[in-house]
Amino acid sequence: MGSIERARVVVTCPGRNFVTLVIETSDGVRGVGDATLNGRELSVAAYLNDHVIPCLIGRDPHRIEDIWQFLYRGAYWRRGPVTMSAIAAVDTALWDIKGKVAGLPLYQLLGGASREAVMVYGHANGGTVEETVDSALDYQAQGYKAIRLQSGIPGLASTYGVSKDRYFYEPADADLPTENLWSTEKYLRSVPELFAAAREALGWDVHLLHDVHHRLTPIEAARLGKDLEPYRPFWMEDAVVADNQESFRLVRQHTTTPLAVGEIFNSVWDAKTLIQEQLIDYIRATVVHAGGITHLRRIAAFADMFNVRTGCHGATDLSPVTMAAALHFDLSVPNFGIQEYMRHTEETDAVFPHAYTFEKGAMHPGDAPGLGVDIDEEAAAHFPYKRAYLPVNRLEDGTMFNW
Questions:
Q1: Is 160 a catalytic residue?
Q2: 72 in catalytic set
Q3: Which of 76, 155, 268, 279 is deepest in the core (most CB within 10 A)?
């Protein structure tokens, strides 16, 4: 096996920005890793180019664990989304190389399949409850066994999770941050009505999910959880800001609605209390933001000890490289719960040809060696980077709030 001979960062925007790390060995094996950090893409690209890539040249690509520890422990300034996204890109690319050298799909190197396929959930949304339910019926007809429900809120011009397109949602929408208005009171009145209508229309043989997006206090989240209990939601996601992990204790005391959190976590330490005290039911950390496959496996193994299952983030701000890596991970881990799936645009799929497939509400990573996904760098060159920010939120009185 040769050494790492070269590595480069490819930034492209086929509908939205993606950062991809390409690593090549001296004997011609190539691996890819996702390094996309939504709204802060170029910071990770610079971290890779200026600080990481020079340290990779000449190393043995098979020594994945050693390289991971070198980049994590050797940086001194540990963790954080930029550092961990960069480490994730390296880690994922090295696993891709290892799979190609072995001639095996990645999930076989992770212990083989623990299930036949990976259950995913789609994203039903609309400006009104009626529009969201209609969208959910469409997803159900496509074979989805799990559907996230997000609806517009009467009295608010916009809200998280509601897009202009039924299938494609990209919140990073402007060259400078869009400022939205938020009202917790109006929101808490609308969500139970949404779930009541959805259960009546869709029945009980489909899982229903909802994303609060960090906008409630613990006692408000507890109230919403109790209000949703009659409709048996699969989970209530990101109910409160998780900077203070202990906040979930109060929510847990008052509701049996399952709780999910973790898409912005970048380390097992972000979830240690939540998992160890069984304050959540699903951990949503993902390959690209939580240090790659190597570290995400540690998080899953720790969670498994406390009956916490995985539910990896899978929105369009993760490239098909992460989607493929997540599916290999999902297929292999014993405590898999569900995988978010938000489809990419045709342009993105053309730039990132992939082997993963969707059928009857589930996905499979395919059996191509490695990740089963690549980047067409010639096609990527036709889509230059475009600065785009995620929105910000203000309360109706003008106070800055959580988006």
A1: yes
A2: no
A3: 279
